[in-house]
Predict the structure of Oxidoreductase.
Amino acid sequence: MAEPKWLQDMNREEYIKEDFEATGKSVAGTTVEGIDKNDPEWLDKAAKKVNAAEGNDYVKLDCGLMTVNQIDWMLKNTFGELTFVDDNNQFLWYNRPKDPNYKMLAKRVPAQVGDTMGAIHPDVRDVIPNAKKVVRALRTKEGGHDDVWMPVPTGNLKELILHYYHRVEDEEGNYVGIYEWVGDLYPFVKYFCEVTGQKLVIDEDATSGATYRRNSDPDAQTGASRKADMEPEKEEPKVEEEDASTGASHHE
């Protein structure tokens, strides 16, 4: 994934200290103790221990009253993939897709719920150090940032997969965890083009974006131009950026 520059510049000695074994407790006092966090049956065991609401039990929310089933139905039908990790680096929830045949962009399975961050990330290459970097950045609000945007080159310029991480705070501004949203932004871009009659084109003078395009261009090794891949079909309206060099580094 493409890290913003401010994240790349973080002190490794600092962010590598993140406890991905989740040995502490949540500042909100919500950590369920006495159950192995990496137990594949953690969800059922923890729910039983705390007498968790379920089914048609009502839950009073900040601005609403819904049953657990209603909350589940709504979140299963939400666009994109959502996950929540608490401030103790324990993976507590994800919105399992309604369609059992849906192939998740960031695959999760029910048995992972309750796992430590160390358990859900493969210990290969720099996966865990990079994950620790994101967590530490949002925990400490590095440089004033409370979110991290990471586009993923996929080899298809009509697909824009984004991993978006956001710092979650309580009413007093204390860090209580991170939610992640993963989804393909291209359908939104395509719809915007259709509605506004604009077009999407490559800005040859853009100061960023070249690396992403190269990593998403199957013909990049030959030097072949793939401008056509950046544009929808001719009958579709597209988006034109008047100054692509400005918004390109908005989150850096």
Q: What stands out?
A: The two ends are 14 Å apart (CA to CA). Residues 77 and 112 are 21 Å apart (CA to CA). Strands lie at 58-61, 64-67, 81-86, 91-94, 147-152, 161-169, 175-184. The chain has two domains: 5-184, 189-246.
